[in-house]
Structure formats: structure tokens, C-alpha cells
Amino acid sequence: MPHTSLTGEEIATQPDDWRTAAALAASGPAGLPRRGERVAVVGCGTSWFMAQAYAALREAGGHGETDAFAASEFPLARRYDRVLAITRSGTTTEVLRLLAATDLPTTALTACVDQPVAAAADHLVDLGFADERSVVQTRFATTVLALLRAHLETEGALPAGVRTVAAAAADAERAVAWQVPDELVALEQISFLGAGWTNGLAQEAGLKMREAALAWTEAYPAMEYRHGPISITAPGRAAWMFGELPAGLAGEVAAVGGRLVADSGADGLDPLADLVRVHRLAVALAAHRGLNPDEPRNLTRSIVLG
User: Fold this and answer.
1) How much is the CA Rg of the chain, to the nearest whole Å?
2) In CATH, what is the architecture of 178-288?
3) Interatomic CA distance for residues 50 and 202, integer angstroms
4) So where does this one cross the membrane (predicted)?
5) Does this chain's domain 4-162 share its CATH topology with 178-288?
6) Which of 52, 153, 258, 273 could bridge 175 with an S-S bond, Cβ 3.0-4.6 Å?
7) pLDDT digits (tens, 9 = 90+) for 205-246
């Protein structure tokens, strides 16, 4: 039986969600980082990986020094001009504890403005239009990154070579329509690779496959892949690159019998749109294994600790 929340509605709305986020960014919501601010971006799980991607984009675009932390690992003694917290549910324990513990200016991006995060943060950015029924995050996470990326556009701080959100949304239309090849569903293992801002995407891709389909996936910076992780790759396994492929990597993957997936970058999909293809693959693999990708084992929509 198809699962409409993750497989259909929520994945398929991402192009329009990103366009809505870009329009929101253009309206100048209060609390988004200003040029020159020293910013810490925090989240848990998927939100942490989106924080990593944004931090790399913001620094590369010259908008200001930016660090990303798992909320539970935030160094409270370190000084920042702003803490930007990402929490879909608005109830994530580690995020709420951090917001209560810091005296720094704070902004939260959430899909649930009626939850405790509303009282904990100084500013709130409402992304309720991208909320999800599924436990596994897809559209909320990518929409957060689309919003922050569009904000860099409005500030003239989008790094060279990174496409506009409008262009990324057009690529996402293609990703939503992509037919998942049977040979990808049959893979035993995938190593997701990134560089710069796409490192966060690679980490998120690996997590998405593990959550939704119990798949064996790992994620590394592309240049670190040679320093040990390539030993995993073999026939029936793959390396999936987000963004530009480093010189020589294709030959090295081929030499060990692995499959290379490298369809994003200057001549292919926007890397964020390529992440949508991973969403599609995760759902296809879950269906192949008889799993419900909307309700993965041992997980709930929000992690609330006692």
C-alpha cells in the first residue's frame, strides 16, 4: 500500500515549498542573520545537517563567520551575535534547553509556532506551510535551507557557482518526476559524499536512507573518501557525490568495482534537488523491503527527553 505523506504529497511539494520560502526571505522576516554577524546554527538530526550546509554557504558567500552545532554540543561559553535554531516540532528538548541556557540573541525556524519554542526564542520564523505528517523529515528540512539560501541571495551573499533558489526549485521538479532505477534499489550499500556546503547534504542523505529504509549508508567529505572509506566500495555498492566530482574519483570508484552516482553540479541537478532524488530512493527501497518510511522503527516525530 503506498504511503501518501512521505512518498507523494510531502516529497512532491518541495519545489513549491522552496519558492514560498524564497518569497518569505524576500519579505525580510525579523531575526535572520545580518551581514557581519557571528552566528551559530543549531539543530538535532536532520536539522543539524541543514545547519551545516547553511553555515558553509554563509561563510563561503562572505556574509559572516558561521558555526554549526548539534544543539546538545553547543559551547555555551563561546560568544556569538546570534544563535539560529532549527526545530520542526518546536518541542525538541536539546534545542529548548539551549535556548533557555543562553543569553545570546536567538531566532528559531519552526513549523509549529504554537509550541514551546515560541516562548523560548527572541524571534520566530514560521515555516508551517512545510510541516509534515511523516516522522521522517523531507520537505521541512529542505525548505529551511531554501529559506536561508534565498536570504543570502537577497543579501548579495550567495557563493559563486551556487544557483538561485528559483533554479534549484526548477531542478527539484525534475527530481520529483525522476523514476528510481531498479539497480539503485538493489544496491547493498551507498557512501554519500559532499564538499563545502554539500557535506551537510551528504550527511542528511545517509540519515534519510537509514531512517526510512534501514539501509547501510555512510557519509564523508569527498576528499576523505579515499582515506579509508573507499575500502567499503565494491560491486553492488555505490558512491553518490553531491556537487562537483573531484578529479580522479570516478576512476577510483570504478577501479574497485563500485557504481558512481554523480548527477549534480555545474552540468547537472542542483545538489539540493539531488537530495530530493535520495528521498525518492529511500521510499522506493522501503517499499521494496516492506517497510513504512513514514514511521521508522524506534523514532518519533519529535524527540522529547524526560
Assistant:
1) 18
2) 3-Layer(aba) Sandwich (3.40)
3) 10
4) none
5) yes
6) 273
7) 999 999 999 999 999 999 999 999 999 999 999 999 999 999
Q: Which amino acid is at 75?
A: P
241 by DSSP, 3-state: which? strand
Residue 9 is placed in which grid cell?
Answer: 504529497
What count of Cα atoms within 13 Å lies in the side-chain half-sphere of residue 31? 21
**C-alpha to C-alpha distance for 65 and 77, rounded to whole angstroms:** 17
Interatomic CA distance for residues 156 and 150, integer angstroms: 10
**CATH architecture observed for domain 4-162:** 3-Layer(aba) Sandwich (3.40)
Residue with cell 515555516: 127
Joined together, the cell numbers standing for residue 139 give: 520537505
Residues 6 or more apart whose CB falls under 8 angstroms from that of 194 comprise 200, 201, 202, 203, 219, 221, 222, 241, 242, 243, 271
Residue 56 above 80 pLDDT?
yes
Query: Whole-structure pTM over 0.85, yes or no?
Result: yes
